[in-house]
Amino acid sequence: QQTAEECRQLLPHHITKHITQIEGNLAKLTDQLKHIRQENDFNEIDLSHLKEKLTQLSEELHQQPNVSIQQNFTSFINKISVVVSSGKSVNYI
Predict the structure, then answer these.
(1) Distance between CA 18 and CA 6 in Å, rounded?
(2) Domain carrying residue 44
(3) Residue 28, SS3 per DSSP
(4) Per residue in 45-66, pLDDT tens?
(5) How far is residue 25 from each of residues 29, 48, 58, 66, measured CA to CA in Å?
(6) Please, which residues bridge with residue 90 across strands?
(7) SS3 (DSSP) at 27
(8) Which of 10-14, 37-41, 77-81 has maximum average pLDDT?
(9) Segment 25-31 long-range contacts (CB within 8 Å, at least 24 positions apart)
(10) Is the Cβ–Cβ distance between 6 and 92 less than 8 Å?
(11) Number of domains in the chain
């Protein structure tokens, strides 16, 4: 039961981490836009680059990380692991 509860708490943590990372990237992009606007020094290449970054952030926001819960019944003590799409695995006994 404790292991299951730890896994349940781990899932929202990974989702929150994903969203926080996107928010940080969006803040950086916003700062770049403000700087370019204040300098009034931009061209078509800059606009294209910024648009590409914004599109990428939008895609990342809509792609929540893939999370799966796996159980290992082969050992004497069942193991539960939470696997996040980044390939990281957190194991509990």
Answers:
(1) 19
(2) 2-92
(3) helix
(4) 888 988 999 999 888 888 766 6
(5) 6, 17, 11, 20
(6) 82
(7) helix
(8) 37-41
(9) 25/57, 25/60, 26/57, 29/53, 29/54, 29/57
(10) yes
(11) 1
